[in-house]
Amino acid sequence: MRNLDITTLRSFVAVADAGGVTRAAGFLHLTQSAVSMQLKRLEELLDVELLDRSGRTIALTASGEQLLVYARRMVALNDEVIGRLTDQAYEGEITLGVPHDIVYPAIPQVLKRFHAAFPRVKVQLVSSYTRALKDQFGRGECDLILTTENTLEPGGTTLCRKPLLWIGAPGGAAWRCQPLNLAFGRRCTFRPRVVEALDTAGIEWEVIVETDSDRTIEATVSADLAVHTMIEGTEPPHLERIDHGGALPELPHQLINLYGAQTKKSVVHDTLADLLRRAFSGSDSVRLKIA
Q1: pLDDT in tens, 27-66
Q2: Can you tell me the distance from the alpha carbon of 197 to that of 188, in angstroms, rounded to the nearest whole number?
Q3: Helix, strand or coil for residue 121?
Q4: End-to-end CA distance of the chain
Q5: What is the DSSP string of 51-115?
């Protein structure tokens, strides 16, 4: 009689969901060699090849696809039994990556509601730039990430599409100056599109602040020394949308995308993903369903 091991099946499901051993190892908080060893033991137990390793990326064989259906059910049933019979509070850690410019105002409310539902689960909030967050997600260092992008890549979901707005000091006049003084982050993803819009409109511009600090940008703009661009709804109360009356070009829309939520993984993971969806889709009512 041969018995399947739930831990091994969990690793197999993680590799299938993550698309590789490296990211799966990050999600499972294991080393790559440990995950690879578990997959090898599973293949030896069943005497079949579950992964096609002939290409540059790992793909499931026909046997692997068949096992994945059963593995998901067995892992889910295992977790349900443990949860029902032990009545333990959910605990652990989940890592969420969010770009600097969309942390406010949505993320504090998401974290507050999540903490109320799972007080013993630690949320590790990573705030960085979209490119850096996608790299971290690719290495399995983040469970969920939000991004601000022009397009959507495979594995992601677009939560909303919002315009970029010109932002300045309350009652400020910096937007009237020529050349137009700009304050930007060094790795801002929508900066090239803003510059393109200005060039197309024939407006001279100059970047007077180029920094990794959002506070530096906000201080410069608050002093009415430069203007900035932000996604609609994310501007802080001490800055305001510029009513330029058409003197500045209209700016393109940005997508706010969510990665890591296409497949259900756990109550904790899925609840946080749902809170993020609701927060950025404009829903005021967030209802938690916890089994």
Answers
A1: 888 899 999 999 999 999 999 999 988 877 778 999 999 9
A2: 15
A3: strand
A4: 34
A5: EE-SSSS-EE-HHHHHHHHHHHHHHHHHHHHHHHHH-PPP-EEEEEEEEGGGSTTHHHHHHHHHH
Helix (H) or strand (E) holding 269: helix 267-281
Q: Measured between alpha carbons, how far is residue 172 from residues 82, 217, 240, 258 in Å? A: 60, 15, 9, 35
Q: pLDDT digits over 83-126, tens only? A: 667 655 678 899 999 999 999 999 999 999 998 888 889 999 99
C-alpha 60/C-alpha 265 separation (Å) is: 19
Which residue from 85, 47, 96 is spatially nearest to 67, judged by alpha carbons? 47
Written as one letter, the residue type at 52 is D
pLDDT score of 283: 45
Q: Which residues contact 265 (CB under 8 A, 6 or more apart)?
A: 17
Closest CA to 127 of 106, 91, 101: 101
pLDDT tens across 65-92, in order? Answer: 999 999 999 998 988 787 667 655 678 8
pLDDT in tens, 145-156: 999 999 999 889
> What 3-state class would DSSP assign to 189?
coil
Give CA–CA dist 287/116, Å, rounded.
12
What is the pTM assigned to this prediction? 0.72
Band (pLDDT 50/70/90 cuts) for residue 263 is: confident
- CA dist., res. 145 & res. 273, Å (int): 9
How would DSSP label each residue in 139-163?
TT--SEEEEEESS--TTEEEEEEEE
